[in-house]
């Protein structure tokens, strides 16, 4: 659940960013709805966050390691910036709790 929430915060932060462009896309695929996508991409475990470069195939460093770093939208944004030179400022929704 935390991965899903943080991923959506990241994607929405990009979508509503002034620098938004078609240079970067976010996709969320649910296994129950699209198992063929998992087969096609040879994905055996989830959650998994992968950067697919514009040219070529993903390299090992194109997979965000959920086990080695503290997981947050901010950490994913930093990782994306390292891979793409696209900076994403994270906007968190207000907490009503």
From TrEMBL:
SUPFAM superfamilies: Thioredoxin-like. It is a multi-pass membrane protein. It comes from the Eukaryota. Subunit of the oligosaccharyl transferase (OST) complex that catalyzes the initial transfer of a defined glycan (Glc(3)Man(9)GlcNAc(2) in eukaryotes) from the lipid carrier dolichol-pyrophosphate to an asparagine residue within an Asn-X-Ser/Thr consensus motif in nascent polypeptide chains, the first step in protein N-glycosylation. N-glycosylation occurs cotranslationally and the complex associates with the Sec61 complex at the channel-forming translocon complex that mediates protein translocation across the endoplasmic reticulum (ER). All subunits are required for a maximal enzyme activity. This is Uncharacterized protein. Its main location: endoplasmic reticulum. Keywords: Endoplasmic reticulum, Membrane, Signal, Transmembrane, Transmembrane helix.
